[in-house]
Amino acid sequence: MSMSDHKSTVPKPAWLRRRLPSGPDFEKLNHMIQKGRLNTVCQEAKCPNMWECFSHKTATFLILGNQCTRNCRFCAVAHGPADPLDPEEPMRVAQAVLRMNLKYVVVTSVTRDDLPDGGATHFAETIRQIKLMIPGSQVEVLIPDFKGSAEALSTVLDAGPDVLNHNIETVARLYKTVRPGAVYERSLALIQRVADSGKNIPPKSGLMLGLGENDPEIRQTLQELHQAGCRFLTLGQYLQPSRNHLPVIRFIDPEEFLGWKKIAEEIGFERVASGPFVRSSYHAKDLYDSSK
């Protein structure tokens, strides 16, 4: 039996219980997203924080469609042939941000290896539309690796995001199992390019724990991220989205997450969010504001 064809046999601990989405604020935001013909990573990736974030009128917008051209074995986002780009999507995202009265916006995407620039121009236009429509707004982008294209990355950086996030996701040893199609060194190089761009855009990254990594591998990954110039870090618990995804090897105790936060801060990260429910865009504004 392979790692991904059964449900995890590790019992889920009590601290991982979360209430289901409900309530008027959740329904209002959900209706607004559907009416605007938008996607959110909150819904597509079955994020455990969706109720909390929607109730606080925050969401992470998912652009470039909702079909990913890669099939990472941890991710709940659908994969398959992607639809043509919607040229009106950047404007619709900006209009939704305006209606929601957001001042801090997170924009991410599926991976679009079928596009010559990986969707970088679409990212850049979304950033520009938001900043044009909502002056003073801050935009964090969570980008794919663009297959290592420095030109595509520059297209996004030139649009002026306030934070650029690219998740390393896991340790190098597990990449072939967890992230087929991605390359550990390529993701590190992307972080390095952001740090070396001279634009003073903070590089951010994150890891999921519980996929079978060991402590020395986690520490080494943190050290390599910091050496590459990563300034903001998130550490969270991997949760299996379905029986078709990789099982959880271990649930990490909240106290252990606090221990990793301390280690990361000692390594030199400026800001660290670490806990079972932490995701790359969870409390992103708080992480950014606390660094100012």
Question: Would you kindly provide a written description of the structure presented here, covering whatever features stand out?
Answer:
The chain is of the alpha/beta class and 292 residues long. It has an 8-stranded mixed beta sheet with strand order 1-2-3-4-5-6-7-8. The protein is globular and about 45 Å long. It has a single domain (16-289), classed as Aldolase class I (TIM Barrel). Helix 4 (89-100) packs parallel to helix 5 and helix 5 packs parallel to helix 6. 43% of the residues are buried. It has 11 helices and 8 strands.
Q: Which structural class do the helices and strands define?
A: alpha/beta
Residue fraction in strands: 5-15%
Terminal CA distance reads 49 Å
How many helix segments?
11
CATH class: Alpha Beta
Specify the biggest β-sheet: 8 strands, mixed
- Please provide the ordered H/E string of secondary-structure elements: HEHHEHEHEHEHHEHEHEH
